[in-house]
Amino acid sequence: MSIDLEAARQFIESGARVLERHQLAVLLDNGPVEPVLTALAAYQNRDGGFGHALEPDVRCPGSQPAAAVVALDVLADINATRAPMVTEIADWIATIAHPDGGIPTVLPSADGHPRTPWMTPSPESGFLTYALAAGLWRLGAQHSWLDTATTWCWSQIEAIDKPVGYTVKFALQFLDAVPDPARAAAAIELLRPAIREDGTVPVEGGIENEHIKPLDLSPRPNAPSRALFDDSTITAELQRLEHEQLDDGGWDFDFLHYFAGQTVEWRGLTTLAAIRTLREHRRI
């Protein structure tokens, strides 16, 4: 099966943000990266971090870790390793980090602004530490916070007892990116008990039967995390992803649709991610 790529383009043009439109042009048409950087800069604050609903679930103007994760993903996807934003993000992360390198998932600036129920401010270090470190490793960054955070990530993963939910997803992102393949391969096996027979990881506290799918856990071919999945599972998941294109040309996300802006923006992000995954697997 092949997807309707023209319908997907139309969907992005009809409802996605300017940022995703420019990313799609880079992905499919070898478009310039400068418009992506310009669009991304609109979400950056003077402190070097990112906010303004760059991550649709937390919509405050102030800089948030989740928005920094999205920014790093955008930069990595266009291979903007030398963009000043990379260092600016790392410097900002260092200002909110605990001494051991751990990062809170949501900062207090989210209060008083629209946010989904799971984006509740807390001072405790959380799983976005893995994602932030992964993003910087993907970009080849060098930073003192990254060194400290990498130690934190290893200590958390190697001591893990019962890995669950998004901890598994973001830990795998770190293990796919960190430049220590032997240690990463061993750590990936520590996460295997969280993977169900169908390759998914359940999300406790989510909507009914909410789960993280194999291609969300390991989206890139030849990544170390692919050791958790056999070829037949990945093939079936690619076929599923193709079949999930909707009549309007886009894809939908499978967690709580909480309010209108979040829903529209996540659908654009989800559609772009689906196209990228299928392209990287030579399905389009």
Which key terms come to mind for this protein?
two-stranded antiparallel ribbon, Prenyltransferase/squalene oxidase-like repeat protein, Terpenoid_cyclase/PrenylTrfase, mainly alpha, 284 residues, 2 strands
Secondary structure: elements and pairs:
Layout: H1 5-15, H2 18-29, H3 34-41, H4 65-77, H5 84-96, H6 128-138, H7 144-158, H8 165-177, H9 181-191, E1 201-202, E2 211-212, H10 214-217, H11 231-243, H12 260-280
Antiparallel strand pairs: 1-2
Helix pairs in contact: 1-12, 2-3, 2-12, 4-5, 4-6, 6-7, 6-8, 8-9
Kindly describe this structure.
By secondary structure, the chain is mainly alpha-helical. 51% of the residues lie in helices and 1% in strands. It contains twelve helices and two strands, in the order αααααααααββααα. It has helices spanning 5-15, 18-29, 34-41, 65-77, 84-96, 128-138, 144-158, 165-177, 181-191, 214-217, 231-243, 260-280; strands at 201-202, 211-212. The chain has a two-stranded antiparallel ribbon with strand order 1-2. β1 (201-202) and β2 form a beta hairpin. α2 runs antiparallel to α3 (34-41). The longest helix has 21 residues, at 260-280.
